[in-house]
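User: I'm putting together a teaching handout on how sequence relates to shape, and I'd like one worked example. Could you take Ubiquitin carboxyl-terminal hydrolase from Syncephalis pseudoplumigaleata, show the sequence you're using, and then write out its predicted structure as tokens right after it?

Assistant: Happy to. First the sequence, then the structure tokens directly below it.
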Amino acid sequence: MADTGQWCLIESDPGVFTQLITDMGVEGVQVEEVWDFDTLAQVEPIYGLIFLFKYEAGASDRGAAMAVDTEAANEAAMDSIFFAQQVINNACATQAILSILMNRPDVELGEELTQFREFAQSLPSDMKGLAISNSDKIRQVHNSFARSETFSNEQPVTANDNEDLFHFVSYVPIHGALYELDGLQPRPVYLGPCTEKDWLEKVRPIIEARMASYSSSEIRFNLMAVCKDRSLVLAEQLAATDRRLTRAQKKLSRLVQTLHGERDLLSMFLSDEREKLARYRTENARRKHNYIPLIYTLLQQLAAKGKLADTLPEARQKAAERKARQRQAKQPTSKP
């Protein structure tokens, strides 16, 4: 590989990768470690997966061996993929991250990476890798996560012959197809068609098969999801819930007002009904009462006081008027 400035080893850690992405000017993206494929739904939307495995002879070819016949792939789509070959040691972590970021139109790259993508997009894959290695911004951000040494910080820490080597590859849905982007391969590895909804289901057996290809004693694998900033996702979900709550409160308020109106109307009907029943009871009580002794006594009192003769003409007059009104009410109304 070319020597275009020394690149350090960086820790495979979601916090490190998240900060690395942020320091490159990308906003709204974070990295989450994946312990179980069944929990991936908790961190959606996911832009891509980064898989770390122990590098052995032929280890990188194991992924390519699972490729679908490239003739089935859309060659025009393949050419539009941002794919960079790794041309320098220790750069695979950053290249795996860039392989996802550069191929997702729904990620805001920021000014510097946007300009870099526009500059490098038309270059062949080996020249893309060289452009990444020669980018002062990308290299400086990468090397800012160098592991500290006790007595010297003058040079970034790199792998030596006594250390196991590990390699990062990316899995990304691009143009309706699933790809493995491995800088040690000559081109993207086409893994078949997919959609944004099912690509995680399709990549799962591929990654599991790669892990199974190692001996049972090898457990040093790491899988990380490059996803939308969880704080943004949760803030959006909270805002959506608040909007639903506001709508529900308005609906409830209207319902409460409607129910209050119905209650007032029913209360009025109930009051009228109770008054009517009370009137019925009073009238029925009067119908059952014998008023003749009372009337006889009143007449005697009036006669004794000499007032009965004075009230008779007036009583007769009123009786005559009442009969006249009754006769008039019984007569049919003539039509014009």
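A couple of points you could highlight for students: Residues 14-228 form a domain with the Ubiquitin C-terminal Hydrolase UCH-l3 fold (CATH 3.40.532.10). The radius of gyration is 46 Å.
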